[in-house]
Amino acid sequence: MTDDLLLVTGGAGFVGSAIVAAALERGWAVRVLDDLRPDVHGARPTFEPRIDFVEGDVRDPATVDRALDGVSAVCHQAAKVGLGVDFQDAPDYVSTNELGTAELLAAMDRAGVDRLVVASSMVVYGEGAYRSSAGIVRPAPRRITDLDLGVFDPRDDAGELLTPELIAEDAPLDPRNVYAITKLTQEHLATSWARSTGGRAAALRYHNVYGPGMPQNTPYAGVASLFRSAIQRGEAPRVYEDGAQRRDFVHVRDVASANLAALDWTSSQPADTFRAFNVGSGHVHTIGEMAEALSRHAGGLEPVVTGQYRSGDVRHITASSARLQTELGWAPSVSFDEGMKEFATAPLRASV
Question: Residues near 157 by Cβ (< 8 Å), separated by ≥ 6?
Fold first, then answer.
């Protein structure tokens, strides 16, 4: 239990609101800073009386200074997420994620707040780790000519099919789209802040987060939301490529508990500390399996495998969460089938 004041940026959002609920249950006093973007929230949310809500943009120094008054630690979730529609989204990603983080960290320095948990993503790894007959390799981006032919799995220069492996936090980072670049920049900014100010920071590299309250009908919310929205409309989920893309689907309540574990961890670390942690369920499933599970539990139409692709997507990305479990004592609590059964009929968040 704690009576310290926690600031959750983006605390009205999908992941942020789950963190707020978990923090309140743990005894934190909670303040939320959120600009309530209509493309994320739709209708204006309501907040329970225990939450001190500050409406405003994390890019505005005066607003952030006000939000940090009396704060002991920050959980930074405010960001533009997802792959985006096209490159015209790039300025919004860079401004929201990179400038927003820089303004927050500068304000934390002014306020003397030295504990930070920042939401990162598995996308910073690019294609992830693979094994060939020669050992562990990191494949180059997939070629459009291969994708057009339906050759989706990465191969080495000799044409050998590569076997996906779990990737650890010390693996080389290789962001391959604008969103991934901004998430890695957020980590670099947090590292610089910790070094310059004596702060303590943890970056949580989320796997594919899903659960009740995901935004619906938006290309920015992730594949689980797109499938769930299609089922709700009475349509079949449309699965890109051949559906065999490997992912780790982690429930939003488990992500929230990982954030609280990371907050506890920052309180015991020496000055000038930064460490990254993968956050996943520890169980690999394909996108096709996820679509099938959602349709089955919701009584919806069978998924349709389209063979379509998006050039910025990675084929397989699955990581080990052993560091988080070993060093922070965290463990996921929601199984894949339990989570998908709940999510198949859970309410989604309306968006414009």
Answer: none
